Amino acid sequence: MLSTTLSRRGLLGFSPLARIGIALVSLVSLLAFTWPLYLPESAFGLVMTQDRYWVFFLIIPLALFFLGLEINRGKIEMSALALLAVLAALAAALRQIGAGAVGIEPMWFLVILAARVFGATFGFSLGAIAMALSALLTGGIGPWLPFQIMAASWIGLLAGSLPQRLRGRLEIAMLMVIALVAGMSFGFLMDLQLWPWLLGTETAISFVPGAGVEENLTRFVRFHFLTAMAWDIPRSILTATLIAITGAPILNALRRAQKRVVFLDDLSERAKAQKAL
């Protein structure tokens, strides 16, 4: 029964309350990414400048609060938590290989593969923790960090939400497509949070406060494709290539680890049941 439950909800399954909380955090994060497009500078009575973007660091404890809540309630198996910590450390170490140079960030293939095996909520947590740990390792802490964390969380969430029936070459092909989408999406989101503060108001691709959504969105798309392709395309191609080369053996290894964790937990449940009898 336990193994069936774990396979249905993923190795790291949040309660409905925590899932609602994550959805709310995601909505707040989406607002943080997009508000300059449709809200005035003085929205909520706060003139938002790049210096004041530190307020969005509140997103980080909110996002991780629900993980801590589930651990405290005993809803997450310790074996799953240990596995999450190991994979987050590996992903953070992989990100240091390219140090972000021309988009070379090998961490994404591991986040996608692990989320594929262990589920959406595991992927969400893995993306957030790996990105936060990477920032601590490199000193890359700044107003951009909460946005990087949420973008990484969404990539893990997306990869973990894919249909589970596909296996073999079709599964690898699907994950390669997700790798391409993830690589481009991460660059798109990072540009979106940076663009309003990066340029003045004098160029054809500058953000114009108070302008309509269509005008600013058009300007942003021009800015993104003119400036970011040297980063996003290499990131996407590298991630897809790593999945094509290593996807099958890593997926098999992770699935064996998943079965091992489930088996150990199942033994524990059986022992408890026998003791109760």
UniProtKB/TrEMBL annotation:
Pfam families: ECF-ribofla_trS. The chain crosses the membrane at residues 20-40, 52-72, 78-95, 107-135, 141-160, 172-190, 233-254. The keyword Hydrolase does not apply. Keywords: Membrane, Transmembrane, Transmembrane helix. Gene3D superfamilies: 1.10.1760.20. InterPro entries: ECF_substrate-spec-like, ECF_substrate-spec_UCP037395. The keyword Signal does not apply. One of its GO terms (molecular function) is transmembrane transporter activity. This is Unannotated protein.
